[in-house]
């Protein structure tokens, strides 16, 4: 079973003896990773006890880095402390993009139908002229 934590509990782990932060409503303990982080320990300590989602995303971490962070997972935030992130909004706007492409086949059919009608009209015109 996953451990459920509150933002308040995470806030207490805000130093180099115990450094936790939140990424995407999940809690990570990076105390042991501080000296290994390729971006340096300072940036991690700045986020200690806070929500590091936006900064983590802004850096554009590699998929290896994303995978790596799961080694430091300690638990999930309780439902009440969940937050909507701007990358969720991005995800929704991507979803509406998908909706747009969903209507694409209909547009394609209309264009194709128009073309066929034009060709039929041309043949009819040639034969009756
Ligand atoms: C558990 C969480 C994290 C893991 C596992 C992680 C891992 C990594 C890794 C593997 C890299 C090397 C480049 C790459 O592969 O993308 C990196 C670079 C970096 N990370 Fe993190 N990181 C974490 C959290 C953060 C946070 C919260 C920040 C906040 C600012 C941050 C800032 C940076 C910066 C500034 C670089 C250097 C980018 C560069 O020099 O190109 N990281 N991180």
TrEMBL record:
Regions crossing the membrane: 110-127
One Pfam family linked to the record: Cyt-b5
Residue ranges of coiled coil: none
Any one GO CC term of the record: endoplasmic reticulum membrane
InterPro entries: Cyt_B5-like_heme/steroid-bd, Cyt_B5-like_heme/steroid_sf, Cyt_B5_heme-BS, Cytochrome_b5
A Gene Ontology molecular function term of the record: heme binding
Subcellular location(s) of the protein: Endoplasmic reticulum membrane; Microsome membrane
Domain Cytochrome b5 heme-binding: 2-78
Membrane topology (UniProt): Single-pass membrane protein
PROSITE patterns: CYTOCHROME_B5_1, CYTOCHROME_B5_2
Domain of life, per lineage: Eukaryota
Membership in a protein family: Belongs to the cytochrome b5 family.
Protein name as it appears in the record: Cytochrome b5
Native species: Mesorhabditis belari
Lineage, highest ranks first: Eukaryota, Metazoa, Ecdysozoa, Nematoda, Chromadorea
């Amino acid at each position: 079973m996953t451990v459920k934590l509150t933002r308040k509990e995470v806030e207490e782990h805000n130093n180099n003896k115990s450094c936790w932060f939140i990424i995407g409503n999940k809690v990570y303990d990076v105390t042991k990773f501080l000296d290994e982080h390729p971006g340096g320990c300072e940036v991690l300590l700045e986020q200690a006890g806070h929500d590091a989602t936006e900064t983590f995303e802004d850096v554009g971490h590699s998929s290896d880095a994303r995978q790596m962070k799961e080694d430091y997972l300690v638990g999930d935030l309780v439902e009440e402390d969940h937050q909507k992130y701007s990358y969720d909004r991005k995800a929704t706007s991507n979803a509406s993009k998908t909706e747009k492409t969903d209507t694409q086949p209909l547009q394609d059919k209309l264009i194709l139908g128009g073309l066929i009608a034009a060709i039929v009209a041309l043949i009819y015109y040639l034969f009756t002229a």
